[in-house]
Amino acid sequence: MTPTAKVRTADAGAATAWNAPAEALLTAADGTRVHAVHTPGRTPGRTPGRSGSGTVFVVAHGFTGAVERPAVLRAVRVLSHHGAVVVLSFRGHGRSGGLSTVGDREVLDLEAAVAWARSLGYRRIATVGFSLGGAVAVRHAALHGGVAAVAAVSAPARWYYRGTAPMRRLHWVVMRPLGRVVARYGLHTRIDPRDWAEVPLEPVAAAGLLGRTPLLVVHGDRDPYFPLVHPRSLHRAAQAAGVDSELWIEPGFGHAENAAGEPLLDRIGARLAARAAAGGATG
């Protein structure tokens, strides 16, 4: 389990400048510095950014992603038509400090971004995670709470899955010294060489602990990393525990933010904004 100490924000810069994106270097509960960017909502007919009392999406990228990656920027741009957006780079990625723990302590990074979004005045916070970020978003909502809705896109249900060739390659990257060198210099991702001290709560178990937080599970039928047993397991676990869960199996969709086109991102933003609004403000 991950620690749940308070998250401090620092060096927020233009965090209250509503008319332009703001950049921040946040401090997670374990001291790791987390790079995040805030983009005001661009809802037609409204003053840009004056949605501080409305919905903000906190976007969590997949493994090897970062704030500045084109696919992440596309997701931010599309989601911003349905609310404001805060996007972060997980530890070991992009301009954030620390080393990637591949889904464990990243919940602290997401909590730091959620806390920052709340400090900007947003009353409804919805998390949107892709692949690894989807697993982190579900675990974060179960362990920390405080969000109005969660979307897990292309997320795994369980750890250590090696049933596809891409996942076997990923395990080599994460677990072998040469693989971590490749990740650092080829994929710009810095991975912690140490094993997990304790196996983190699996996403499928976390899905059953969401309580009143609605869950949207989105997965492609052409996902090369995780077959459909993963989204179906997440959805079933949530439903079995009484969680309000939806499952979208998208024909022709591949994996995570890199394969997510604007129409799908637009649908996710619209649906998640509606679910968050129906749930009311978060604490």
UniProtKB/TrEMBL annotation:
The keyword Hydrolase applies. Residues 56-155 form the AB hydrolase-1 domain. GO terms for molecular function: hydrolase activity. InterPro entries: AB_hydrolase_1, AB_hydrolase_fold. Keywords: Hydrolase. Pfam families: Abhydrolase_1. This is Alpha/beta fold hydrolase. It comes from Peterkaempfera bronchialis.
